Amino acid sequence: MGDFSVTLNRKPRYVIEDRCTGCTTCVEYCPVEYPDQFNQEISENKAVHIFFAQAIPLIAYIDESCLYLKEKKCRICENVCKADAIDLGQKAQKMEIKVAAIVLATGYDTYDPSLKNEYGYGRMTNVVTSMDFERLLCATGPYEGEILRASDRKHPHKIAWIQCVGSRRVTPGDNSYCSAVCCSYTQKQVILTKDHDADAKLTVFHNDIRSYGKDFERYYQRAEELSDVRFIRSYTTVAREDPETKNVFVRYATANDGVKEEEFDMVVLSVGLNPPADYQGLADKFGIELTEHGFCLASTTNPIGTTRPGVYVCGAFQGPMDIPESVFTASGAGTQCGELLDYRRGGLTRERVYPAEKDVSQEKPRIGVFVCHCGSNIGRVVDVPNTVDYALSLPNVVYAQEQLFSCATNSAKEITDTIKEKGLNRVVVAACSPRTLEPLFRDTLREAGLNQYYYDMANIREHCSWCHSKEKEESTRKAQDIIRMSVARAGHLKPLQEMDLPVNKAALVVGGGLAGMTSALSMANQGHEVHLVEKENDLGGMARRLHYTLDGLDVQEYLDRLVRQVYRHPAIHVYTNAEIVEATGYVGNFVTKLTSDRGPSEIKHGATIVAVGVDVYKPTEYLYGQDERVLTHLELEERISSGDEAVTGAQTLVMIQCVGCRNTDRNYCSRVCCSESIKNALKLKEINPEMDVYILFRDIRTYGMLEDYYREASAEDVKFIRYEPENPPQVEATEEEGRPVLQVSLMDYVLGMELAIGADIVTLAAAVIPREDNKDISQLFKVSLGPDDFFKEAHVKLRPVDFATDGVYLCGTAHYPKHIPEAINQAYGAAGRALTLLSNDIVTVSGSVCEVDEARCMGCEACGRACSYGAIEFRKTKQGKKAVVNPVLCKGDGLCNAKCPTGAIYLKHFTDEELLSQIDAMSATA
Amino acid sequence: MCSGRVDLEFVLRALANGMDGVFIGGCRLGECNYVTHGNYHALNMALLCKKIMAHIGLNPERLRIEFMSAGEGNLFTEVVDNFTKQVRGLGPLGKGEGEDLEPEALQERLREVTKLIPYIKLIMNAKLSQRLSPGEYEDYYTTEEIDALFSEVASYFIDPEKCQACQICLRRCPVEAIEGGKNRIHVIDQDKCIKCGTCFEACPPRFGAVTKISGGPVPPPIPEADRALERKGKGAEA
Fold first, then answer.
1. Alpha-carbon distance A48 to A26, whole Å?
2. Is ipTM strictly over 0.90?
3. For a designed S-S bond to A113, which of A53, A109, A121, B196 qualifies (C-beta 3.0 to 4.6 A apart)?
4. Domain ends where: B124, B151, B178?
C-alpha cells in the first residue's frame, strides 16, 4: 500500500494525439470497411475511425484491420491528413509508473446468449440482445436511430423482450444472481421504441419486476400504461423462426391461457451483467480476491475497498449496479485515495499566470475574425477565402484571416499575437462548436491581455459545413450569415469578471447515522474540521435498530466501533440533541446556527452534507396496533435479537411485503424490505428449523447478489406466495383447533385457489418513509425534495450525491431507502464530492450571471418565482421593493429575464441587446 | 443560457424583421440536466406567442418549438425540413395569412403588440412558469383569455387637477415615462409607458391623481405651458 509499481502496455493509436483535430477526413478516405465494434458489429466502420461520437479524446485511431498494418499497403490516411497526425510507425509502449493507490473501474461485461443455444441468438437473425437494441435505438447507431431488422431492413412492429437472460439461473453458464439493471433498462427501451413508432406492439416477458431504485416504480408504470404495451409474467422460450419472414415465435405460459406460442418481428434478449472479461487475470495482477461470481470481494462496511489495502474498486466490478451507484462509488473511491494521499495534495499542480488585463471598454469595437478550414472539414464546403473577405466588409471588423486549424497550438498563438499587433478588442473565431473549444479560445484572449468574455464563436462546422456538405454555395452564404450574427453580438460584448470566493475548509454533516458518520470520518481523515449534527441523544440513526445483515455483519458491534472512532477523532465535533435554527450563506461560506447539548452554536463551514436518514411507516393495516402478534420487521428483528420465544418459538410466521408503499399514497418501492424479510426468515429458520415461514409478496426484489439469499430461503423451505395489490391478504384473529391464531387468507395464483394460513405471528414489511422534518431541512439548506419527499439530487444519474445548490451534498437513506453497503458507498461518495470543493482555497463563479438595473425594477417578483436556485432576493428601498441577485447562487439560465416585464434583470453575456443584435443581423441581408 | 431565456420579444422581433417563421429548439421535456426545467418556460412562452400571433392575424404555425437531445441529429433534420416546407407553404409573412396583410399594417400590429410585452408578461406571469403535461398544451391559453388580455389593456393618466408634483410616481416609474419635476405637474408619456401600474400604486391615496383608464381614450396631456403647479394657500382651503 502507498507504493505500487504498475507496468502499462500502451497499444499504438497510429495517430498523434496532439495533432489530430478529430476532423475525420481520414475516415472518409479509408478504404477498409470493418464491422463497427461500438455498434455491436451491426454496421460497418473504417479501419481508421473515432470510436464513437462522444469519445474522449475525440480523435481517431487505427485498428488491426488497417491494410498497411496487415499488408504494408495503402497509407491513404497519411496523405489526406492535413494535420500530419498519422504515424503508422508507432509502436506499443511499455510504461512503468509509480502510484500510491489504484482504483479498479473496469466496468462489466454483458452475458453472451450465443453461448447457449436456447435463445436462438446467432442462429435467428431477428433475435438481438438488449445491447444490440440499445444501439439500434441510438441516433449514432448502426441505422442512425432507425430500428431495423437485420433480415430485411424493415421496421419491426411487434417486438418482445425476454427478461433475465443469463441471470437468476443456476444452470451452468448462467449467473445465479440478478443483474439489477435489466428491468429498468427494458422499460426505457420500451418507452423509446414507442417514441420511434407510436403504434408498435410491445411485449415484455418477465419474472419479478424489480423497480427498486429511486423513481423506478413510477417509470415502470409509465412504460406499462403505454398503449399496446404488455407486461406478461411468464417463463419463455424462443421456439422457432419462420424461414420465410424470419419472424420469431416465442412460447410462454399464463395462468389463464396455459401455454401459447406467439409470433414477433423481433425478439430482444435482456441480457445480464457479467464480471469484466478476464476477471481472474485482473485479480491475479492486482493481488485481490474475488467473490464466487467473479466480482471484487469487499466487505459490507467498505464496498469500495478490496482485499488489498491501497487498491479500490468502483462501478460494476463491485457487482451489477445502475449508473447512480456507479457514480457515487467513483467519488467514494476518490475520497478513499484522498485519505491515503492527502498529505501530498496539490504537490504536482502549478498555477498559470496571465498578463494583466487591458481596459478596452471605452474603445470602439475593433473585431478580428478568424475563419477556420478545419483541415478540409469546413474548407471543402465553405468558400473560406471568400468568407474572410466577407467578414472584412462587416461593421467594426478591422481584421480577418483564414487558418488551417484554429485550434492548433501555433494557430492559437497566432490569434494571441494578432490581437496585440492589430490592437483587436473583440475576437470571433468561425470554426466548430463552442462546447469543445470555447475555453481554449477564451484562453488565447487572456494570453493577449483581453478580457475572455470579449470572445464569440461562430459554429460553421456542426451548424453548417457538416450538415450541408453537398450545397457549397448555400453553405458559404450560411457561414457568412452565422459570422455576421456573431460579429454583431461581439460588438456588444462586455468585459466580465469571474469572482473568486474563499472556501472555508470545515464541513457540516447533518445526521449522525451510518452515512453521516462515514462521510464525516472520511473528510476528517483528510484534515478537515467536521461538525456532525445529530437530532437524537445518540449517534447511530436507523442502524441502531438493525442487528445483523444477510452477509453476517454484527451491525451493533460495527456501529459502536464507528461511534468510538467519531468521538475520538480530534477533527470531528459532535452535537447531539441538536436542532438547526438557521442556515445562511453559499458555497464555500455557509453559516449554520443550532442549539444542542453544547448550547447554542454558530458554525462556519464550506460544505454541507445532508444525511438525515429516514423513518418507518406505522401500519394501519393487518391489525397492526390492535393485535400484539402483528409486528413490523424492525420489531421482529429486535425480538429475534433479544431471543423472544413468542417469536422464535412460533409454529407459523407470515410476513407480508409492501405494507405502506407501492400504493397511491407512496408510489415507490422501499427497496430493502424483500431482503430484510428474507434475512429474518433465514435467521428464524436457523434458530427454529421447524417453523413454517411464509413470505407474501408482490415482486421479490432481491436485486444483485441478494438473489442468492432468496434462493437459499427457498431451499430452506421458506414459502413464497405472490399476491396482487387489488386482492391483498386478509388477517383475522381467530382460533384453529383451539389454538389462537391470526388467520391470513389470500389467493394463490400458482395453485389457483384461496389459501388460509394460521399464523402465530404476522410481520409487516413496513415502508421506509421520508422523515417528517425533511421539509424543514430542505428549506433551511435551500435544497429540494422529490415527489415522494426524499431529497432530490441535482441529477438522478450523473450527479447522485450533489444538490443543485452548490456546496450541499446528499447521502444515505435521505436520498432513497438503501442497504448498509449502499449507504456507505454513497457516504464516501458525498465526502469525495465535498472534498473536491473543500480541497480548494477558492471557488470561481462565472461572469455570466444576472444583475438588476435597480431603476427599472418594479418589484413584481416575477424573476424570483422563475429562479430555481433562490438566487434572487427582494430588498426594500425608498423606491419600493427591488430585486437583488446573489451572483454566487445564479446559474445563468436566464429564465428570469424572459419573465421580467421591464427588462430590469439581465443575464450578462446573454443580454437582450446582445441577442437582439444577432436577430437583427440574421435578417439583415448581406 | 437555457431555452427558457428566449423572450417573447425575440420572436416578435424576428417576425418584424421579415422572418417568415421562427423555430425554437430545446432539450427534451422532463430531461433537464439541472433542476430548472426551463424548457417548460420556453414551451409556455411559445404557446402564448402563438395565441398572440393568431390574435394579430398571423398564422401561429409560423412559430414552432420542438424538444430533442443533442444526440438526435436525424430528428432535428426531419423537424427542420418539415418546418421549412410548412413555412414555404404558408408563403411570405403577411401574404399567407388569409387576409393579405399589407407590410405597413403588419409592422404596425407587431409594433403595437411588442409595446405590450411588459404588460403581457405581468398579467401572464404565473402561467408562464407552469410545468404542463402533453395533453394540456392545446388549451393552455384560450382565445377568449387572449382577447380579454388585449381588450383590457389599461392606460394610466395623471389628473392634472389632482397631481401635487410630489415626484413619487416619477421616481418609481421603471421606464422613466413620467415627465415633470418639482412644482411641475407630472405627465405620462404614453409612448414610453409600459402599463405596469407602478405609478397607480405609488400615488399617495390622499392625492389619488393617477387614474386607470380601461378601454376609453386617454385625455391629451396638458400643454407644457400650463404645467406649473399653483399651490393653493392654506387659508383659501379653509
1. 7
2. yes
3. A121
4. B151
One domain for residues A260 and A134? yes
**Contact status of B72 with chain A (Cβ, < 8 Å):** yes
Q: Tell whether the torsion through CA atoms of A832, A838, A839 and A843 is positive or negative.
A: positive
Q: B47 is in which domain, residue-wise? A: 3-151
Task: Return residues 535-554 of A near B (CB < 8 Å).
Answer: none
CB proximity A865 to B under 8 Å: yes
The string of pLDDT tens digits covering residues B86-120 is: 999 999 998 878 777 788 899 999 999 999 999 99
Nearest to B13 among A848, A895, A919 (CB): A919
pLDDT tens digits for range A697-726: 999 999 999 999 999 999 999 999 999 999
Same domain, B140 and B162: no
CATH code (residue B212): 3.30.70.20
Query: Are residue A607 and residue A620 in the same domain, yes or no?
Result: no
Domain holding A330, by residue range, is: 279-344
**Domain ends where: B86, B119, B151?**
B151
How far, in Å, CA of A362 to CA of A837, rounded? Answer: 37
| Number of structural domains found in chain A | 7
C-alpha cell of A511?
A: 445526521
Picking from A893, A897, A905 by the largest number of B CB atoms within 10 A of its own CB, the best residue to mutate is A893
The answer, for A850 touching chain B at a CB cutoff of 8 Å, is no
pLDDT, tens digit, 9 for 90 and up, residues A38-83:
999 999 999 999 998 778 888 999 999 999 999 999 999 999 999 9
Tell me the backbone φ, ψ of residue A424, rounded to 5 degrees.
Answer: -70, 145
Structural domain count, chain B:
2
> Which chain A residue has the Cα nearest residue B117?
A901
Query: Residue range B211-218: average pLDDT?
Result: 86
Query: Residues B135, B179: one domain?
Result: no
A743-752 residue pLDDT tens: 999 999 888 8
Residue A3 in grid coordinates: 507504493
Alpha helices (runs of H) in A345-433, residue ranges in sequence order: 384-392, 409-422
Task: Kindly list the distances between the CA atom of residue A16 and the CA atoms of A20, A74, A441, A790, in Å, as whole numbers in the listed order.
Answer: 6, 19, 22, 49
| Chain A residues in contact with B71 (beta carbon < 8 A) | 53, 138-140
CATH number at A429 reads 3.40.50
- Select the more confidently predicted residue: A676 or A805: A676
Note whether A479 and A626 are same-domain residues.
Answer: no
Q: Confirm or reject contact between A309 and chain B (CB < 8 A).
A: no
Same domain for B200 and B225? yes
The per-residue pLDDT of chain B, averaged, comes to 89
Q: How far is B119 from chain A (nearest CA, A)?
A: 7
Q: Are residues B169 and B142 in the same domain?
A: no
Closest-CA residue to A275 (of A254, A291, A251, A264): A291
B30, B138: one domain: yes
The pLDDT > 70 percentage for chain A reads: 100
Q: Is-above-0.90 flag for pTM?
A: no
Q: Which CATH number is A729's domain given?
A: 3.50.50.60
B203 touches chain A (CB under 8 A): no
Q: Is residue A564 located within the same domain as residue A635?
A: no
- Residue by residue, DSSP assigns A689-722 as TT-EEEEEESS----GGGHHHHHHHHHTTPEEEE
The answer to whether residues B97 and B140 belong to one domain is yes
Cβ atoms within 10 Å of A850's Cβ, excluding its own: 26
